[in-house]
């Protein structure tokens, strides 16, 4: 039988067989649950139907319940603040560090790797750690403020509703900076050093070179990093959950925590599924934008940027 | 070329920044080694005196910590095994075999990384319970692998592309089937890529929290991240023991990263920017 197939066809058949286990797994554990979520979101499901039963179709009722819930809109606003606040500082600090580490100096690689440790620590560990660092009585940051004469800044960050979001964002910036730095560094390394040398010979100052060479050439990488950052930051659950659990009151209950509460605290599965799908909107939009940009870049003639 | 003295100035600057940035990590380890009665003081000590292992014995004495560490080890090793088993052939086929639909598959793998874990945890909570997978290692390993598998394929595909096709063709002519080519020719050449994928999968499995929180209900399978979170509630102000636990969780992370650092950084950047 094997003889009757051409080598190309045999190779293709083997290729499909290679894909099968992985794709079957993803279909079963990723695609099916997500579709099941869609199904749940248009049915009346709660704890009573956990093991199956007569789930009643209720159309858009779950969505209406979520959209009518002021707590949902409160969470939307918090997610926006959390995401924009985190992204802005992660990116700016990451970019500044990337500019520093793009220059050759002794121990560059070692120091860069040490910075990455912050990003690799499990978010639960970072969250616990920052809970302790921001502790009112004996936390390191308040002690640091006292030590440098800024004692008035010392504050009970996480238990005051007006500053708890700032505390959570602060921790999340710390987690995200190394990742931003790493990706932006890759981008900086793709810039031809001759461009800088030529401009320097022509008398361009360091600022002019940064403004007219580095910035424009980094634009595509910067957009990619910001899009990835948007997707990652919008998803964040662990660090907020561990640091504040959404509180005090509801001052840090970002969308992912809202979905968690509806689903796992109140066991309103239908409504939780609907809220979850609404949470998916932002990453999906970012994803569509990202893929379209990739397509456009592939179609553009190679080396068009230089 | 700039004079070397200038470069050492940059090193000094970068060292100061790195030290300031890693202050939280130092504080974690420092607190874990400080005697409990010296931790909650109005003016904290910067250096633990005397250094003590007391917090570690307290933490390991808390119910469930050793078991949870073991659970996390089992889960993350399971994640690595399942991810490589499914991901290596998939990445190879997508990199090397001209198939209808491979472009769509790559796109699907990119999209698969978008959903927030909570959107997946919710339906998995119901579905795994119905098929008896909730509260089992396998249920958690499978859930974690939905995070690592798409990522792994995206990282490995470009690496597989870089293996010279002539080598493969020679092996095919010699009568090797496609599995033989993958195992004997391609895989040995892409050890760095596979190591990066394995290391990253381990780190993701080890640090995963939300699936552990929602899909495991008892101490028999709960990962150590869930236990650390529970400790905050149970032993709220025992910061010494909490930081000892956090340090214990961080040690394998730092070890895996130190061992495979070169591969992991390469794999990360390849997966995120170029794909």
What does this molecule look like?
The complex is a heterodimer of chains A (306) and B (275). Chain A is an all-alpha fold and 306 residues long. Chain A has a two-stranded antiparallel sheet with strand order 1-2. The N and C termini of chain A lie far apart (54 Å). Chain A is built from 13 helices and two strands. In chain A, α2 (61-67) crosses α12 (269-279). Helices cover 71% and strands 1% of the residues of chain A. Chain A folds into two domains: 1-41, no CATH class; 44-299, MetI-like fold (Orthogonal Bundle). Chain B folds into two domains: 4-52, no CATH class; 63-274, MetI-like (MetI-like fold, Orthogonal Bundle). Chain B is mainly α. The two termini of chain B are 35 Å apart. Chains A and B meet through α1, α3, α4, α5 and α6 of A and α1, α2, α4, α5 and α6 of B.
**Cα radius of gyration of chain B in angstroms:** 23 Å
Oligomer type: heterodimer
Shape of chain A: flat
Helix content of chain B: over 70%
| Sheet having the most strands of chain A | 2 strands, antiparallel
Mean pLDDT of chain B: 86
Helix count of chain B? 13
Distance between the termini of chain A: 54 Å
Which chain pair shows the most residues in contact?
A: A-B, 96 and 96 residues
Low-pLDDT windows of residues of chain A: 301-306
Percent helix range of chain A = over 70%
Query: Taking strands numbered 1, 2, ... along the chain, how are they ordered across the largest sheet of chain A?
Result: 1-2
Secondary structure class of chain A reads mainly alpha
- Alpha-beta content class of chain B: mainly alpha
């Amino acid at each position: 039988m094997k003889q009757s197939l051409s080598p190309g066809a045999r190779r293709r058949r083997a290729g499909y067989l290679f894909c099968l286990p992985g794709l079957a797994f993803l279909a079963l554990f990723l695609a099916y649950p997500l579709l099941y979520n869609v199904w749940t979101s248009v049915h009346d499901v709660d704890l009573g139907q956990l093991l199956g039963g007569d789930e009643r179709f209720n159309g858009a009722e779950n969505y209406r319940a979520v959209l009518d819930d002021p707590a949902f809109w409160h969470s939307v606003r918090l997610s926006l603040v959390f995401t924009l606040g985190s992204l802005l500082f992660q990116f700016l600090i990451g970019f500044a560090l990337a500019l520093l580490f793009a220059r050759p100096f002794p121990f560059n690689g070692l120091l860069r790797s040490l910075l990455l440790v912050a990003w690799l620590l499990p978010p639960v560990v970072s969250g616990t750690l920052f809970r302790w660092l921001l502790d009112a009585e004996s936390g390191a940051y308040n002690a640091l403020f006292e030590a440098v004469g800024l004692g008035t800044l010392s504050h009970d960050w996480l238990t005051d509703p007006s500053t708890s979001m700032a505390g959570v964002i602060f921790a999340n910036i710390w987690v995200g900076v190394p990742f931003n730095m790493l990706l932006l560094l890759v981008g900086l390394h793709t810039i031809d050093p001759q461009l800088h040398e030529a401009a320097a010979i022509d008398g361009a100052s360091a600022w002019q070179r940064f403004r007219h060479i580095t910035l424009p050439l980094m634009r595509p990488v910067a957009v990619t990093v910001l899009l990835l950052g948007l997707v990652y930051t919008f998803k964040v659950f662990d660090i907020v959950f561990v640091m504040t659990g959404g509180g005090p009151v509801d001052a840090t209950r970002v969308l992912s925590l809202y979905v968690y509460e509806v689903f796992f605290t109140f066991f309103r599965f239908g409504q939780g599924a609907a809220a979850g799908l609404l949470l998916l909107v932002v990453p999906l939009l970012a994803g569509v934008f990202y893929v379209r940009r990739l397509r456009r870049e592939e179609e553009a003639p190679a080396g068009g940027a230089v | 070329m700039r004079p070397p003295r200038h470069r050492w100035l940059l090193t000094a600057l970068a060292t100061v920044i790195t030290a300031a940035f890693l202050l939280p990590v130092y504080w974690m380890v420092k607190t874990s080694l400080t005697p409990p009665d010296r931790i909650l003081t109005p003016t904290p000590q910067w250096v633990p005196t005397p250094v003590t292992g007391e917090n570690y014995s307290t933490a390991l004495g808390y119910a469930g910590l050793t078991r949870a560490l073991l659970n996390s080890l089992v889960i993350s090793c399971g994640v690595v095994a399942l991810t490589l088993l499914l991901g290596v052939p998939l990445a190879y086929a997508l990199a090397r075999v001209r198939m209808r639909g491979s472009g769509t598959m790559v796109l699907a793998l990119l999209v698969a990384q978008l959903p927030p874990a909570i959107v997946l945890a919710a339906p998995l909570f119901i579905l795994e319970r119905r098929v008896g997978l909730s509260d089992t290692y396998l249920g958690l390993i499978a859930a974690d692998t939905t995070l690592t598998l798409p990522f792994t394929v995206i990282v490995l595909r470009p690496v597989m592309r870089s293996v010279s096709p002539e080598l493969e063709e020679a092996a095919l002519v010699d009568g090797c089937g496609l599995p033989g080519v993958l195992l004997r020719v391609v895989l040995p050449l892409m050890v760095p890529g596979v190591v990066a994928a394995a290391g990253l999968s381990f780190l993701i499995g080890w640090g995963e929290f939300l699936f552990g929180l929602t899909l495991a209900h008892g101490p028999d399978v709960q990962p150590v991240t869930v236990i650390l979170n529970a400790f905050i509630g149970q032993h709220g102000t025992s910061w010494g023991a909490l930081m000892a636990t956090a340090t214990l969780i961080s040690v394998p992370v730092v070890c895996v990263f130190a061992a495979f650092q070169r591969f992991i950084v390469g794999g990360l950047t390849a997966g995120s920017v170029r794909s």
